[in-house]
Amino acid sequence: MSRLSRLLQSGGPFLGLLLVCGLFALTEERAFIFTGGNLKNILTQTVIVAVGALGMTLIIVGGGIDLSVGSVVAFTGVLGAKLLVAGWSPLATTAALVVTGGAIGLFNGAIVAGFRMMPFIVTLGMMGIVRGSAKWLGGNQTVNAPSDSPVARIMARVDPAGFWPLPPGVWMLLGLAVVMALLLRRTVFGRHVFAVGANETASRYSGVRVGWVKAATYGIAGLLFGFAGLLQMSRLTQGDPTVAVGLELDIIAAVVIGGASLSGGAGSILGSMIGALIMALLRNGTNQLGWQTYSQEIIIGGVIVLAVGLDKWRQGRLARG
Amino acid sequence: MRSLLRVLALALCSAAAVSAAEKTYTIAVIPKGTTHEFWKSIHAGAVKAEQELAAKGTKVKLFWKGPLREDDRDQQIQVVENFASRKVDGIVLAPLDSRALVAPVASALQAGVPTVVIDSDLESDKQVSFVATDNFKGGQMAGEFLAKQLGGKGSIILLRYQVGSASTEAREAGFLDAVKKVPGLKLISSDQHAGATREMAYQASQNLLNRYGKGVDGIFCPNETATIAMTKALRDIGRAGGKVKLVGFDSGTQSVLDLKNGDVQALVVQDPLKMGYLGVMTVVEHIQGKKVAKRIDTGVSMVTRQNMDQPDMAALLAPPIAKYLKE
After folding, report:
1. In CATH, which of 3.40.1130, 1.10.287, 1.10.3470, 2.40.128 is domain A35-320?
2. Which of A114, B40, B83, B157 gives 20 to 30 Å between its CA and that of A181?
3. Which helix (H) or strand (E) holds B260?
4. Is pLDDT of B2 > 80?
């Protein structure tokens, strides 16, 4: 491996982050963008996409995809608001949402693995099923959670001007990221996920139980998606069945910008976290520069294509040695 | 290269010097979406305020920014947070939700950025002022107009809009309040909802008219889609054109056409341009330390076939957006 491609492999997302920071540093608005309060702001806005990206990284490394994330976030958010209204404790509610997300994920995984169906189609169907169920559960309306519930404080910024204290949601994200990185890098299961993603047939011949590994990746990711639903509800202080439409695309973009390959077998938790951060930073910065909404969409779209292009080029170099 | 940098540094310094010399107020105007006509009128009003203030020597820089995905609450929260971090001098916000936007507005205020709420109310006391249509009054006007059209007696229908929509519920309440004062009016239906889309509203109207079409004398619809759908349903059964008096709310291309043809007797219209204008004016006055009212009514007008060509009414039906927005 040449030095350049090794640098790109490990540092590509980092370089991207630095580049975006550098671009914003050239503008007059840098005095507003690079403040403690705003950095906390960016981190808080990253949390939901990032928690989703933790799960999505696992799935994409394993050679799959999940389009139902946005719907799962909406569904668990509505469910959470209803449970809180019904008097469930915050802890029990959290557990219920995580388990619900996990169950939906496991169901996705079981169909993908059991019937050898395309994950794209399975989760596309699930996206509609879960979104519709969310609307049914909420009676086509937003469900207001009690705003004095501790759940509402997870994503609340206590002092908007300073960097500290960070909202609990940011710490939870960091903790989960460490757990997921260890799972992916340091466990047998993690190695199997990489193997299945890189070459399914070869892993099957080497004795990896491919079906179980696949089902497990969707299940574990689902737990995280359910948790993201809790965070979304905390942020809105309500369960909104129409929230997070298109969130899955933000999450997939974050994972891809972070260096994962949609053909499986490559990707890292750290990269995905940086990918999520780049997306939030781009949105935050272009907001503050007063750029039009459409220019943001164009820029973020361009960044995604650039990231995938870089990935292709890198793979080409790797193949040639 | 170095000389280029020097020029750049110089430019930055001089820019900083200029802004230090005369204070420019930066105001973020955050609508619910950006593509609808209604929001374009609000934008035009904000630009009008900017121009007028500039003429009086108060420099204002506007940021016009809707949520990245239309009608997405989380995205609108992000926009509010980002402008609060940006330390704009003030925010003018049309909240997508009366609850979800409470925390971001409170935390903006904590960071020293005041917010004026326009269009839809916020369940909070942290906003400087609430600048919007008095929907209850609009409903009352509709009720009084219908009573006069019917000579004080007849059977009437209220086709409601949707559960949980605060603005239209206020219009419905205002309408009921007005018609209850007229003993000759009999309310034969007031518990049906039109729903969000034109198709749903059309079905609801057809169903209602199937049951009450022969006996009804007057109808009130509290929003644009319901008005259009009800007009269409009345035409279908041959009772449009004034046989059944119809009063609607808000104006759109189709409902204005229906008004001209005489199928709709009157439209209660809001003034979004004034809303955007007064929103910016109010937040600037607040920043300058002046006292502003907690609630500012932007007024409603009754547009009929007779007065729809008057310049002031025509301006409400087709706000002069192009005059202020160059895009």
Report:
1. 1.10.3470
2. A114
3. helix B253-261
4. no
